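Fig. S4 source data, part A: sequence.
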Amino acid sequence: MNKLTPKAAFRKLAAIYDKMVARYDEAAGPIGMTCEGCTDNCCLSFFQHHTYVEWAYMWEGLNKLPADRLEAIKARARDYVEQAQAALSRGERPHVMCPLNIDEKQGVCGLYEHRLMICRMHGVPNLLTRHTGQEVRFPGCYRCQELTEGMEAVPTVDRTPMYKDLVMLEMQFVGRNLRMLPKVDHTIAEMIVLGPPRLK
């Protein structure tokens, strides 16, 4: 399998993201799901991300920011990692604002065009079929669950084909070193603190 250049990989990743947004909108529309006026904030959720290609794509976006804004994000990322590690050591799930959030009240992402997969898919009901055949379902965020209560046919996004596309892209992006590299299991803050991924 030929290894993709970053430019080609990012173009393919953007296309996968576009599909995710379209599927999200198809589910959210009939539900009447919006984030407007939400009292919760997805940016406080503890998410870990698992691909080198998304990590690199995020850094492509970060490197386009003005130097002072990037430094501020790096400082918030270091604070996030410290707070998250403290919570985990107490046996608690971290509840810390994502360092990319630039407006906590409105939940505005400072890297919106480069936001990662989980940030795009969180909220609406979705399912994933694992390679073992096991089906994993997510009922949506609390607001979505309130809106879908009593609905006979709840619109659900099948993430499986998009995940498969992402896995294939990861293989094309990293190349033959994929099996030798450490498994990606990082929060956005950790990806910022660690810097761009090393693929060798």
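Fig. S4 source data, part B ends here. DSSP finds seven helices and five strands in the chain.
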